[in-house]
Amino acid sequence: MFLERRRGRTTRHAVDPSGYQCATLASQLADEWIKLTRRMSLSGGGSEYSGAVRSFAKFTDKYLSEAGTDPAVARLDGQAVDLVEVLYAWEGDLRQKYGPKSKQPYRRARALLALIHQRATASPGIPEYLRQRAKAPASYGKPTPQPLDEFSNAERIALRDAARAAVRATEARLDRGRELLAAGNDPRIGGWGDLPNLVWATRARMVNSQVLQTHLPAKSRWWPREVVDLLPVPEGKSRGPGVRALGRELGRLLFPDEFDLQAFRVLLLLGMTDTTPEELHDLETGDIEFTDGGLRLVQTKLRASRIRADLHPEVELKSGGEEFTGDGSWDVPGLIRRLLAATALIREVFDPDPYLFVAVRQAASDGELRGSVAQFKSPRYRFGFWIASQRDGQGRPLKISDPYEVRRLRKTTKVVRAVALGGTVSDLAGDDNHVEVYRGYYGHGTTAHIMAGRAINRSQEWVFNRLVHKPVLVDEVAEERLEEPEVAEELGMNVEVAKAMRAGELDMGLTNCRNPYDSPQRTDNKLCHVAPAMCMLCRNAVIFYSQLPRLLLMSDRIERMRTALPPPRWHAIYGQQRVALDEVFAECADRLPAARQQITELEIRLDLPLGQRTEFDR
Question: Contact, 274 vs 310, CB < 8 A?
Answer without folding.
Answer: yes
